[in-house]
Amino acid sequence: MDSITKHIEKNEYFLRLYNRHEPAVRAFVKNGVQDYHDVAEVMQETCIVAWNKFDELDDPESAFGRWLCVIARYQIMRFRRDKARDRLLLNDDLVDKILAEGIDQYKENNGMLEHLVSCVDSLPDKERKILQVAYNSETKIKHFAEDLNLSSNALYQKLSRLRVSLADCVHLKLNAQKT
Description:
Layout: H1 3-32, H2 36-53, H3 60-82, H4 92-121, H5 125-136, H6 141-147, H7 152-178
Helix pairs in contact: 1-2, 1-3, 1-4, 2-3, 3-4, 4-7, 6-7
């Protein structure tokens, strides 16, 4: 296999792992950096560092997510140090404690996310479509409700029932996993 093919395979492997763990790591970063744009900046820096150090990771399949959180933790602390002039930032010791707990909870949160995806996938197509449009688009609820021939209130109630149903499904899966 030539070096170009190996390089392409490494790129694809990194991107698959990164995409699998990115939502949970982004949630972790949000614990230390609240502004949406700042989260995006920290995630970008985290990705760059991870890419540059990817060859150093011994067991990417099982350790990538936690490793990425450790890199993100350092990037958050660096970002916060650079923004230290802003009086609205939390104390560094407090943020460090929050992030340390976040790394410990990464595996649990990632499991919950996987269960949520599974629960959403098990919904009927119509309900899954309602969730996708309501949460993954710029469509206003009022207009979406009109498209479904529902009142806004009826759509909010339907979304509330779907959230409860998904929460119940995730809890059942988590409890089944513990036993």
